[in-house]
Amino acid sequence: MRLFIFGYGYSAKAIANELKDDCEWIAGTSRDADKLAQMEAQGLKAYRFDGYQSNPEIGAALQEATHLLISAGPDAQGDPVLNCHRLDIANAAHLKWIGYLSTVGVYGDHQGEWIDEKTACKPVSQRSTERVAAEGAWQNFAGQLGLPLSIFRLAGIYGPGRNGMVNLSKGRGRRINKKGQVFNRIHVADIALAVCIAAKKKKNGIYNVSDMEPAPPQDVVEYAANLMGVDVPPLQDFESMKLSAMARSFYGECKRCKNDKLLKLIGGKMRYPTYREAFSEMWEKDSWR
Predict the structure, then answer these.
(1) Beta-strand pair 114-115/156-158
(2) Residue 261 parent element (H or E)
(3) Nearby residues of 107 by Cβ (< 8 Å), 6 or more positions away
(4) Looking at domain 2-158+185-213+257-271, does it have CATH number 3.40.50.720?
(5) What Pfam families would the database entry show (predicted)?
(6) CB neighbour list of residue 138: distance below 8 Å, 6 or more residues apart
């Protein structure tokens, strides 16, 4: 396997680490010089990609890639990878599989009802609307090429360095109460597991990559605080809080995501079925930072 990743961020790093023993090489992109240097130090091939201009070196690498993962988000101009490297990918003679990291935000608001991969996409936010368009573009493109495409609709991502305990340690922990509000989450290690298996098996289809328990966000903060032995932040009413437009938009959607397809893909057992197992292990092993 020779894996090329567009957008080497938090999830992509975990995926690369999961697949490193199965790959001849792994390549990734970033627009940040420091991150490119870090990638090279970790043994990856690193390429600059700003999302607006093609890079001939990327085009050459794609000709050898067998697997392609898209972790770079779209914008109002569309999907940056397709905009800049569509022809390179179309001409990639060895390519066998494409993966695309999306979001459960594409479903929009379902007022707490259960949804699955067959549920119609009714995005609320602009960024989710752009995701729906990008998903469709990749489905059309992969179909034209006759290649399997796995679309991973990710729930709220967390893991080491990116979790409620980090927020509490920095004095930023808040318990926000909006009646009936629940979110699904997903530990980055379970994202890596799902993508790894789908890539190896060259799967085609859409997967909700989410945990087993959609839960109120304030419950997660309380659980983390109790583990750490720190004061549980006071409960604050959503309507009276001053939140950024981005933060407020997350509370504009409420749904419960079924993950039956994910469980079938990974053999029925998640590494972290709920936030409880994940937070308890991160605290016990001191791996939450």
Answers:
(1) unpaired
(2) helix 260-266
(3) 115, 119, 120, 121, 122, 123, 153, 253, 255, 257
(4) yes
(5) Epimerase
(6) 70, 79, 82, 98, 100, 149, 151
Q: What DSSP letter does each residue of 22-80 carry, written as one string?
A: G-SEEEEEES-HHHHHHHHHTT-EEEE--SSS--HHHHHHHTT-SEEEE-PPPBTTB-H
Domain ranges of the chain: 2-158+185-213+257-271
pLDDT band at 249 (very low <50, low <70, confident <90, very high): confident
Burial pattern 8-17, b for ≥16 Cβ within 10 A else e, equals bbbbbbbbbe
The vertex-21 CA angle with 99 and 163, nearest 5°, equals: 65
Contacts of 278 (CB under 8 A, 6+ apart): 158, 159, 163, 187, 272
In this predicted structure, the answer to whether residue 178 has a pLDDT above a threshold of 90 is: yes
pLDDT in tens, 29-62: 999 999 999 999 999 999 999 999 999 999 999 9
pTM: 0.97
Comparing CA positions, the residue from 234, 235, 218 lying closest to residue 275 is 218
Residue 242 has pLDDT above 90, yes or no: no
Q: Is the dihedral of CA 15, 20, 22, 28 positive or negative?
A: positive
Quick check: 31 and 51 in contact, CB under 8 A? yes
Residue 246 banded pLDDT, cuts 50, 70, 90: confident
pLDDT at 248 over 90: no
**DSSP character for 171?**
T
- 244: DSSP letter: -
Contact 224, 163 (CB under 8 A): yes
| 228-237: average pLDDT | 97
The 10 Å Cβ neighbour count of residue 126 is 11
For 222, counting Cβ atoms within 10 Å of its Cβ (0-12 exposed, 13-18 middle, 19+ buried), the class is middle
Let me know the angle formed at the C-alpha of 154 by 150 and 156, rounded to the nearest 5 degrees: 170
